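Homework help board

Subject: predicted structure for assignment chain

Our instructor gave us this sequence and asked us to write out the predicted structure in token form, then describe one feature. I got the tokens but I'm not sure how to describe them. Can anyone check?
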Amino acid sequence: MEIKCIQTGVFKVNTYIVPVEEGKVFVVDPAACAFSGDENKITLYLEKNHLECVAVLLTHCHFDHISGIRPIKEMFPKAKIVASAIDAPEVGYGMINKTCLRGMGLENLAETLMNQPKPDTFLSEGDDFYGWKVMITPGHTAGSLCLYNESEKKLISGDTIFYTGYGRTDLPTGSDGEMQETLKRLGREIPFNSDLYPGH
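My token output:
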């Protein structure tokens, strides 16, 4: 099974369905919710394809990447909710997302965020996540992470890298200096011919 991309949520985030083993997957950055009118988009795909979600991985804590955790957790109660140890406390309606929603006029999403399950597993630099290497890549947020699969040369980059640029650094805990260092690091450590799976 190849990685499946489903665009979800208010900003059409690239949500990835990543195979773990036969019939089992983890989901990256689910954003499907009632507010954006696509609440069941991910769960219907999993059900239709007879897939069990074993984990929900969050590349960072921003509202547009986390608003769809609950429907998956309700369908798969044993699925772990996973984020970097740095960003995990901000998942939900914390300071960062309060600031983001106010600035973008999306305060109506507040209740959705308040009702999202919190991460229960925390990742650090160098951890192995189902065969993917965890890379803590600050810049977009302090605890943004990327996943790299060395054997398949695939990088899941969240909002750290896009196809034609990189994530904004002007939101709380963002840092342009850290982003530049992160980009240099990725340029050194990730082969140029790797496949990129960005957040947008």
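Reply (TA_rk): Your tokens look well-formed. For the description, you could write something like this. DSSP finds six helices and 13 strands in the chain. That's the kind of observation they're looking for.
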